[in-house]
């Protein structure tokens, strides 16, 4: 029982960490694609993440402690005889009888291979909006990738195969995905299907609300923080592996500056006049008369608005324990507080930057309607 529980616990923990780190990005992609967020689609995405980590933990873990740990006689023997499990069934029935066979490891190993891949078929039909054939092909491809990974010792990471690559597993896993795809059409699984919105590019423009503005800021903050963390983490890893050393000014100033430039400043002066997060929320900076703002006006708004705030926050929050700019921390906090007050008090949902530059936001799809 313990061998069945701990991979599930690892799957839940892994999915929680993944969703905590990438959840906002997934919401941004969802909003960009569908023009709104759906609780059902979000919950199904979370379930898909848990299932993906579960599939990994049940088929790949535990890993050997060293590269040579799996290299001994009898470990990782490849099974290439299709239907070999039928001979094992017959031998188990002869030895244990039907009652003993019903609870035997031989039977439940095969059943577990089928059950493990049934959710993949269900998700292929409901979440990916495929069909039975899609579920079967996806199950076959996923199972083949797993068996090859086991056979190659995670593609050479280990010197020997550390688990048995079994052609019967490939067959049973594919059968499980096929069965899941068939069962997916039952009404009980309809909750896994999100609303059937079309492409958000062709949807009617919607009113720009405070919640929508705030959501765009969340997207921008997540994209910026994720990019800075990924770049600085990669440089730190390269340094530990013997690569060139990094310095604090590069890590704490220049990298945040480059990231903010590509997330906020460059997109703001490009056609579309919006940061990456605002583009995900289908927003566009507009000047008086609800027409697209000029590039200089949009750039100034970004510097005075959330783009500048994000940059100042990044450089005032050092990767070291003590901030190198304690005064800047206080100034940024005060500026954020004033901007929030303006944002909440203004009837047009404009913050301090919007007031100063006489700009606001419109749904960018409204411009396509005007052009036609």
Please tell me what the overall shape is. elongated
- The chain-level structural class is mainly alpha
Number of strands: 2
Biggest beta-sheet profile: 2 strands, antiparallel
Strand order in the sheet with the most strands: 1-2
Number of helices: 15
Strand/helix succession: HHHHHHHHHHEHHHHEH
Estimate nothing, just give the exact number of structural domains. Answer: 3
Rounded mean pLDDT is 86
Report the radius of gyration as a whole number of Å: 27 Å
**Which regions are unreliable across 5 or more consecutive residues at pLDDT < 50?**
none
Name the beta content range: under 5%
Distance N terminus to C terminus?
64 Å
User: What share of residues is helical?
Assistant: 55-70%
Concise synopsis of the structure shown:
The protein is mostly helical.
């Amino acid at each position: 029982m313990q061998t069945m529980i701990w991979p599930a616990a690892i799957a839940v923990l892994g999915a929680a960490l993944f969703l905590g780190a990438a959840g906002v990005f997934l919401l941004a992609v969802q909003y960009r694609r569908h023009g709104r967020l759906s609780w059902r689609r979000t919950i199904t995405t979370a379930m898909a993440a848990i299932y993906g980590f579960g599939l990994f933990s049940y088929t790949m873990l535990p890993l050997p402690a060293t590269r040579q740990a799996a290299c001994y006689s009898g470990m990782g023997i490849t099974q290439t005889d299709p239907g070999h499990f039928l001979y094992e069934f017959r031998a188990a029935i002869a030895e244990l009888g039907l009652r003993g066979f019903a609870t035997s490891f031989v039977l439940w190993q095969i059943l577990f291979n089928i059950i493990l891949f049934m959710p993949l078929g269900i998700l292929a039909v409901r979440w990916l909006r495929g069909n039975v054939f899609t579920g079967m092909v996806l199950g076959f491809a996923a199972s083949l990738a797993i068996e090859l990974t086991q056979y190659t010792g995670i593609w050479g990471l280990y010197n020997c195969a550390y688990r048995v690559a079994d052609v019967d597993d490939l067959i049973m896993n594919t059968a499980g995905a096929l069965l899941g795809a068939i069962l997916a059409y039952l009404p009980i699984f309809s909750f896994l299907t999100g609303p059937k919105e079309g492409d958000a590019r062709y949807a009617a423009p919607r009113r720009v609300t405070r919640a929508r503005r705030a959501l765009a800021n969340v997207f921008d903050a997540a994209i910026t923080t994720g990019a800075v963390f990924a770049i600085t983490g990669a440089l730190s890893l390269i340094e530990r592996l013997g690569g060139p050393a990094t310095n604090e000014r590069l890590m704490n100033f220049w990298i945040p500056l480059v990231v903010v430039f590509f997330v906020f400043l460059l997109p703001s002066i490009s056609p579309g006049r919006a940061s990456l997060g605002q583009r995900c929320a289908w927003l566009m900076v507009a000047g008086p008369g609800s027409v697209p703002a000029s590039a200089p006006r949009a750039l100034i708004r970004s510097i005075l608005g959330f783009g500048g705030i994000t940059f100042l926050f990044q450089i005032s929050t050092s990767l070291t324990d003590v901030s190198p700019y304690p005064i800047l921390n206080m100034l940024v906090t005060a500026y954020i507080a004033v901007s929030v007050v303006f944002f909440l008090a203004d009837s047009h949902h404009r913050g301090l930057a919007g007031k100063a530059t006489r700009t606001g936001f419109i749904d960018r799809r409204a411009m396509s309607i005007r052009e036609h």
